[in-house]
Amino acid sequence: MQPNGFDCGLYVLQYTEKFFSTPITNFTTPQLMKTKDWFLTSEVESKREEMYNVIVNYVKANFPENSKYVLPRAALVEAGPSHPC
Question: Mean pLDDT throughout 17-37?
């Protein structure tokens, strides 16, 4: 379960990735309830780093003239009440 109001996109990516690697074949309610345990929270937490690495590698491969630049890492800290996604 998502513990904050800003990781919505990471959870969407994780569910999408999991769905395509382990597709649901039976869309009845009991089968859909099993998606709550599809992955660990730590898998979602690592998604931000994975995305950063994909972007950096893409830039290096496709724009070698820009590879000397270091892309900043975003540190997300919840500043106030969380908003549901």
Answer: 76
